[in-house]
Amino acid sequence: MSVVASTDSRLASGLAAIQSEVDAAFDALLPVPDDTRGRLVEAMRYAAIGGGKRVRPLLLSATADLFGVDRTAAVQAGCAIEAIHVYSLIHDDLPCMDDDDLRHGKPTLHKHFDEATAVLAGDSLHALAFEILSDEAIYGDPFVRAELVATLANASGMNGMAGGQMMDMEADHAAYDLHAITRLQQLKTGALLAASVEMGAILGKVPIEGRANLRAYARDIGLAFQIADDLLDHEGDETKAGKALRKDDEQGKQTFVTLMGPDGARDQAKALVEQATARLSSFGDDAALLCDLARYIVERDR
Amino acid sequence: MSVVASTDSRLASGLAAIQSEVDAAFDALLPVPDDTRGRLVEAMRYAAIGGGKRVRPLLLSATADLFGVDRTAAVQAGCAIEAIHVYSLIHDDLPCMDDDDLRHGKPTLHKHFDEATAVLAGDSLHALAFEILSDEAIYGDPFVRAELVATLANASGMNGMAGGQMMDMEADHAAYDLHAITRLQQLKTGALLAASVEMGAILGKVPIEGRANLRAYARDIGLAFQIADDLLDHEGDETKAGKALRKDDEQGKQTFVTLMGPDGARDQAKALVEQATARLSSFGDDAALLCDLARYIVERDR
């Protein structure tokens, strides 16, 4: 199903808007210098501009919209979280990691450039995320800047995405059950999705005690997202996905699909989406885009 | 020359103190979790604890001491900058980068663990640096936290260390002259050394207009540090250095030594150290440790 056919035009226009805003922001953040760093910045641009669905920036900006946050601040913070996501894809695709040749329908960074450049471009995007968040001109309140950094650093490090990636790499030696797979995915995928919502709330200056429903929504869709990813790997279309699929099956890996069966996994993902949207009922129509996004997350074909 | 013989006991005790404080802080920051992330955290500990000279944390804490900064805050910030330094060494040592087998006299991380773990451990230490700096309990003032993050992110990314590393990788295709090599090293090595001093000044709440002499000192010793590194690569002792040397010569790379000759390079390094220490004259005896450190930087044998 295409985005437009399966969801309403609100989501389609929300995605189109954030995609073009994030691309424009990365373009401005990554001018190619007139020295031998040129290759590095070209590589960063190759990975960061175009191609991505921008689910995380949309999650962030749709949350920020609930609280009337300035659009530029939300888009820049969206770029920060996307820079982390993109760097993680670059490093995950490396030969010593998942050894992937295709990403977003084009050659992976290390195939198009080389491995050393891929390592460095990933590292530079990682640093860029924190450079973006410490821009005084965009986030005047230093408390906001510091809280954004704390949230993103925690979500990406050993207690977040990188920790989940390690658990994933250890899957061969560990007989993970559903509980363990859930924990793994909460770190590997869930932490950054949750951080997207959290950063929107931080920009909205929502006090911690007011974030419970948003956090619950983020937790639910994080899990639904990964179940959908496992289903996509199991039964998706490689051309639409723009990357190699059937990798879990080939490696004999435990996933939500192997543990629950395709139908059980699909039912669980849908139930999580229903639960997630119910969490936002107090926001009424203002949360319509976040609800659309929750549904899109399980219906997407890439 | 050993540290103790070539410099006074003030420097020796300053180095010994910060080495043990940084090791203890990393030990506390990196508890091994009781799940399959254990291997990742063990790898981070392998690289971060023990072995390093801790020049950057000492630069930071000695600068912070000029302004009566709380010791815990200075040591934690020292760990943040050291986490960046250590992650960069892990990634630089990878087969696709410098392909080094030895670091601090022991096998490099990817040799002792594996390449994928080395990529992830580097990434996790990168994130850890920003987790450390956003610890509200240590840096109560959010402006200080935000300024520390901005300084470190900028020094480590494409306009700092990573950018310099890319310029270094491009050296084969580029006929660098002394001006270009100086620029390259200002980014590759100088940026993080300068950030160490800057972060000490930030902790000391020194306004930007009061940092000129400290910045000039940092610039001078950054350059001296790299000249000393090139001399060490050219004529040092591998056992003392704990890593492979003579790599620049083998690769036919342009360095300060090839461009200025060993004697010219040595004279230049010494002149820079004299200039650097003169920058600190207004601090009087309070800056004695920073002056010792400047001299140590060119006299070290590893």
UniProtKB/TrEMBL annotation, chains A, B:
GO terms for molecular function: metal ion binding; prenyltransferase activity. Keywords: Isoprene biosynthesis, Magnesium, Metal-binding, Transferase. GO terms for cellular component: cytoplasm. GO terms for biological process: terpenoid biosynthetic process. Its cofactor is Mg(2+). Pfam families: polyprenyl_synt. It comes from the Bacteria. Belongs to the FPP/GGPP synthase family. PANTHER family: FARNESYL DIPHOSPHATE SYNTHASE. This is Polyprenyl synthetase family protein. It comes from Pontixanthobacter rizhaonensis.
